[in-house]
Amino acid sequence: MLERTAGGARLPDDAARRLAGAGDDAVGDWCAAAAELRNRGKGRVITFSPKVFIPLTRLCRDFCGYCTFRQAPAEAESLFLSADEVLAVARAGERLGCTEALFTLGERPEQRYPEAQEWLSDNGHRTTLEYLAAMCRLVFEQTDLLPHGNPGTMSRRELLTLQPTNPSVGIMLESSSPRLYASGGPHEFAPSKRPRVRLRTIELAGELGIPFTTGILIGIGETRLERVESLLAIRELHERFGHIQEVIVQNFRAKPDTPMSQTPDASGMELLWTTAVARLILGQSVNLQVPPNLSEDYERYIGAGINDWGGVSPLTIDYVNPEAPWPQLAELERRTAEAGYELRPRTPVYPEYFAGGAQWPLPAAVRAKLLKLTDTEGYVTGGTQRYAGTK
What DSSP string runs through 24-67? Predict the structure, then answer.
């Protein structure tokens, strides 16, 4: 079955589940099969997205056991970034060659904090998602950057408000396991982390034809079998709609002053195991990412089947993992080349959704902007030389 899967055959659900029971001595074979499968589908290119990180608000209705991103109103320097602040970050990124404006924010803070609702009302908006749509439109219309919204769970109506300016949107599934939101779990006090509502957001995006980024977070208390079930749930949605453009395999790192501060970090072996299994389950066409700033030896995951490093910024920190700086582009390029691959910059949506005559139903204005920024293969024009400030 492993040989057939490496050759492009679909890994059956029951065979995928059996992987969870095998020992670590099999991981080398799985990595080899996953790398072969990646090469069949993606060739010798590893991509990254030159971006700026825009934390529109760090207020959040949820409390996750490992999060340092969220803030209460009394802790925050500002409740929301203003339009001028958003535009200043986007324009600074534009000068450095970035093409993605990653909007990350807390989940519906107005439902918990009257201060958030008051700020939104005073600035002419009913909800955080409405304000996000306005800021995406501002960046889309006034800069060369393309927004990628990552605001948490979304309704059909909310997705429709982002679609005209966002070539892709995203939400991390994290895990499909109901155990994680049971009493004592990391998501006990995070209603938006219920798998059902997150999977519904991904499903709605598929119905609307929106390219989508999702992923799993490993090391937060789930089992290997539960990781497999999460990946199978993602695959099922992709097989229905074809819209899962990217799956992130992210490793948990404990942070001080959180309920999970004493939980051990996800090990390199667990990340390697999960990355290879993700490629075997998802097949050769889905783009697979491991964040390079969360592992010292990140190049090893090329050998486990990844083909993308995700967003990397010359300007802004990773606000979700502020202790983990982005790698310098020269170092990322060197390590990728030493593994035998070429590093190329991409936009927030992958080339297969718009380049080479692709018929994916992107809005006309989004498609036009993408074609302006990219070469005939769908990668950012100018290659890594465009990405200033990191050489």
Answer: GGGHHHHHHHHHHHHHHHHTTEEEEEEEEEEEEE---S-B-TT-
Is residue 120 situated within a structural domain?
A: yes
The answer to whether residues 135 and 149 touch, using CB atoms and an 8 Å cutoff, is: no
Residue with tokens 């050489």: 391
In this prediction the pTM is: 0.96
| CATH classification of the domain holding 124 | 3.20.20.70
Report the domain count for the chain.
Answer: 1
Query: Pick from 211, 138, 152, 246: which is nearest to 363 by CA?
Result: 211
- Torsion on CA atoms 73, 77, 81, 82, rounded to nearest 10: 110
Burial of 36 (0-12, 13-18, 19+ CB in 10 A): middle
Task: Work out the average pLDDT over 162-174.
Answer: 98
| 312 part of a folded domain | yes
Bridge partners of 218, per DSSP, are 251
**DSSP H/E element including 373:** helix 364-373
State yes or no: pLDDT of 391 exceeds 60.
Answer: no
